[in-house]
Specification:
about 40% helix, about 250 residues, alpha/beta, Rossmann fold
Length: about 250
C-alpha cells in the first residue's frame, strides 16, 4: 500500500468519526425537507434500477451512518452494507437494528467481503471517494453475471459541484476531502465500462437544492421537471447511472 493510499483511507476514517461525533451529516442536507425528498428520490432510483426486491442479495457501498441503508431496506432485499469507517458502521448498525448486515471493509481491496457474491451493487455519493479502477477490479467479480448496479454521483458539469471541486474555500466549506472528485456523464460511463460493466443509463438529474424552503418545494419540483426535459439537464446536480454485469 502506498503512502497516498494509506492517507486516503485514514482521511475517510477521520471524516466518518467527525460525522458521528460532530453531527457533520447536516452538511449534505439529507435531513431538511427538500433534502429528504432528494434522498427518497435517490433511494427509489437505486431500488428500481438495481431490481431490489425480497431475495435479492444487495451490497451497498459506502453506507456511512445508514441514511440510505434504512431506505434500501424498504425493498425487502437481503442487504449487506460496507464502509471503511468503524464509527460510521457502528452508527449504521444502530439505525438498521439487525435488519441488514453492516461490515467494516474496504471496497478497493475487498477486505470484509471475502467469498461473497451479490445480485446487485448500489451506492450514493461513494464512487467519487475511491480509486474507481481498483474498486471495480475488486467488486465486479463479486457481482453475478447479469447482476445489476446503480449509483448516484455528483455531476462535475454543475456549477456548485465544480466550485467545490476546484475552489479551496468551497471545498473546505463542503467538508470535501482532498482526494474527492466528481464525474461528467461521459467519463463515468467510460470508467464503468472499462471496469467490465455494461452501462444502460448515465444521465444528469436533480435541481432541487437541499436548502429550498418548504413552501417553495412544489414550485421548484415543477421547474425541475421542465429543466430535466430540456438541454439544461446537463448541469443538474447529480448523475444517475445503472446497468448490469454482462
Amino acid at each position: 500500500m502506498t503512502t497516498e493510499t494509506f492517507d486516503r483511507y485514514e482521511a475517510e476514517r477521520r471524516q466518518g468519526l467527525a460525522i458521528v461525533n460532530e453531527d457533520l451529516e447536516h452538511v449534505w442536507g439529507w435531513s431538511s425537507p427538500a433534502g429528504a425528498l432528494r434522498a427518497g428520490r435517490r433511494a427509489d432510483f437505486l431500488i428500481q434500477a438495481a431490481g431490489l426486491a425480497p431475495g435479492v442479495r444487495c451490497l451497498e457501498l459506502g453506507s456511512g451512518t445508514g441514511e440510505f441503508t434504512t431506505r434500501l431496506l424498504a425493498s425487502g432485499c437481503q442487504l449487506v452494507a460496507v464502509d471503511v469507517s468503524e464509527a460510521a458502521v457502528d452508527r449504521c448498525r444502530e439505525r438498521v437494528d439487525g435488519r441488514a448486515e453492516v461490515v467494516v471493509g474496504n471496497v478497493e481491496t475487498g477486505e470484509g467481503l471475502e467469498g461473497r457474491e451479490f445480485d446487485a451493487i448500489v451506492g450514493v455519493s461513494v464512487l467519487h471517494h475511491v480509486d474507481l479502477a481498483a474498486t471495480l477490479g475488486s467488486l465486479v467479480p463479486k457481482l453475478r453475471r447479469g447482476g445489476r448496479f446503480a449509483f448516484s454521483e455528483p455531476n462535475l458539469a454543475n456549477p456548485q459541484v465544480w466550485a467545490v471541486m476546484n475552489i479551496p474555500a468551497f471545498r473546505r466549506r463542503a467538508h470535501a476531502l482532498a482526494h474527492e472528485r466528481a464525474f461528467r456523464a461521459s467519463g463515468l460511463r467510460a470508467e464503468l465500462e472499462a471496469g467490465g460493466l455494461e452501462v444502460e443509463l448515465c444521465e444528469p438529474f436533480d435541481f432541487l437544492h437541499p436548502a429550498t424552503p418548504r413552501r417553495l418545494i412544489p414550485a421548484v419540483r415543477r421547474l425541475e421537471s421542465l429543466l430535466e426535459a430540456s438541454p439544461a439537464r446537463a448541469i443538474a446536480a447529480s448523475l444517475q447511472v445503472a446497468g448490469r454485469r454482462p
